Amino acid sequence: MPAQDDEEQGQVFFDESDIIHEVDVDEEDLPDADDEDDIENIEDPDDSLHIFTGHTGELYAVACSPTDPVLVATGGGDDKGFLWKIGHADWASELQGHTDSVSTLAFSSDGQLLASGCFDGLVKVWDTFGNFKRTLEGPGGGIEWIRWHPKGHLILAGSGDCTAWMWNVDNGNCLNVFSGHDAIVTCGDFTPDGKTICTGSEDATLRIWNPRSGESIHVVRGHPYHTEGLTCLSISSDSTLAITGSKDGSVHIVNITTGKVVSSCSSQTGSTDGNPESIECVLFAPNFPWAVFGGMDQNLTIWDLQNSSPRFICNHEEGVTCLAWFGASKFLATGCCDGRICIWNCLSGECIETFKGHEHAIQSLAVSSNLEFLVSVSMDSTARVFEIRDFC
């Protein structure tokens, strides 16, 4: 048979002179099929220095104390909240009494109290040892978010019943109910000066309120604002601007005094069916003239407020669900649907670190008061602590 035919048949012949060196191979050294499967299934390394595993369901919320650098609160779908301490594996206090998912948590600005909001429509208040103080009642729907007044023991909460409520925590009295939205109040906050309230809703509107009178000062809606429900909101440190993100894939910046839209940006990409990708998180930079936002388009956008244009668009492998600044530094963390946390230098737009360890989507991030720890909570039912002191 001609040599060409042999090659076509896949047959190769060697001459003894072609052999350079013979090596004996023990069959036990050869990988079998099971070994190859193990190689393919090697998990990502775990970069966390502490894991809290007290929960038995998905985690939704995390908060770090503004005064105690190791005190952390977490809450989730197992109807439980916990207070625990970084580096103190033997200390944890369960926040007992909720009858539904603990959806949101927040420490008071003085660090003396913790509030937990639940889908049962109740807000509960605790001291920093986990001792129950009081229940704040009233909303007819689940609590979506809670915020403390920046200068006192007042709490603002958004509800699934289309209202927001404000209480005096020290005596439990309701001070005002903010009515006017036509759907779930999905986001909101006091302005940093404490003089105004902003709330966003599934009804695609932003409302600006007088906290004393309960009067709606401005209603922002229609062109050129969002066309679908709001998902997130942040207020600038000088209390002049609100930035909002929406399911419609757009971000708008509003002048709080006038109620006018001053800047807008849309998601960079659409989904496979042509619909926009939701914006999930927005923040103003604490020490730079920037805003940042991320979403299901797998991008973090660093937005230049002075030029109304993007400084950088930072790509991720999967959607961005949450953000956290490292104090007033140039560093920012993004939590993602793939369970990874990316650390960005926002001056250069570079990803300088990726933290691995979670198995499912990150739901929320918080930074310790001493800027040494980043705490994340995930749908994998764990909270993880990562060291960030090198970035601050």
TrEMBL record:
<feature type="repeat" description="WD">
    <location>
        <begin position="223"/>
        <end position="264"/>
    </location>
</feature>
<dbReference type="InterPro" id="IPR051179">
    <property type="entry name" value="WD_repeat_multifunction"/>
</dbReference>
<feature type="repeat" description="WD">
    <location>
        <begin position="272"/>
        <end position="313"/>
    </location>
</feature>
<feature type="compositionally biased region" description="Acidic residues">
    <location>
        <begin position="24"/>
        <end position="46"/>
    </location>
</feature>
<feature type="repeat" description="WD">
    <location>
        <begin position="355"/>
        <end position="392"/>
    </location>
</feature>
<feature type="repeat" description="WD">
    <location>
        <begin position="313"/>
        <end position="354"/>
    </location>
</feature>
<dbReference type="InterPro" id="IPR036322">
    <property type="entry name" value="WD40_repeat_dom_sf"/>
</dbReference>
<feature type="region of interest" description="Disordered">
    <location>
        <begin position="1"/>
        <end position="46"/>
    </location>
</feature>
<protein>
    <recommendedName>
        <fullName>Angio-associated migratory cell protein</fullName>
    </recommendedName>
</protein>
<feature type="repeat" description="WD">
    <location>
        <begin position="136"/>
        <end position="177"/>
    </location>
</feature>
<dbReference type="InterPro" id="IPR020472">
    <property type="entry name" value="WD40_PAC1"/>
</dbReference>
<keyword id="KW-0853">WD repeat</keyword>
<dbReference type="InterPro" id="IPR019775">
    <property type="entry name" value="WD40_repeat_CS"/>
</dbReference>
<feature type="repeat" description="WD">
    <location>
        <begin position="95"/>
        <end position="127"/>
    </location>
</feature>
<dbReference type="Pfam" id="PF00400">
    <property type="entry name" value="WD40"/>
</dbReference>
<feature type="repeat" description="WD">
    <location>
        <begin position="178"/>
        <end position="219"/>
    </location>
</feature>
<dbReference type="InterPro" id="IPR001680">
    <property type="entry name" value="WD40_rpt"/>
</dbReference>
<keyword id="KW-0963">Cytoplasm</keyword>
<dbReference type="InterPro" id="IPR015943">
    <property type="entry name" value="WD40/YVTN_repeat-like_dom_sf"/>
</dbReference>
<dbReference type="GO" id="GO:0005737">
    <property type="term" value="C:cytoplasm"/>
</dbReference>
<keyword id="KW-0677">Repeat</keyword>
